[in-house]
Amino acid sequence: MISFTVRMRFDPTDLDAIRANLEALTAASRQEPGCINYVAHFVADDPTTVLIYEQYLSDSALDHHRNTPHFKQHAIGGLYQYMKERHVENLAAVA
Hints:
Radius of gyration: 13 Å
Order of helices and strands: EHEEHHE
Distance between the termini: 11 Å
Largest sheet: 4 strands, antiparallel
Oligomer: single chain
Shape: globular
């Protein structure tokens, strides 16, 4: 299983566009074969920061995700165009 978080920071003036892209990306990603979990969050005490928690069955499921039309539209063409910073943390499950 592949698990990771993606943390991105945005300008406060872009938050409506960020929310729209996150909602579309989340809904479509959850329908992908091999997607176990996809949850996007605004950080409660810093609404300009988004944290996305993702889990996939395999590397091929993650590759599939990154090549979908919705990822290209809402992540690459949407979120990535607005983000000020991006950090990925790869996770190792305990059990």
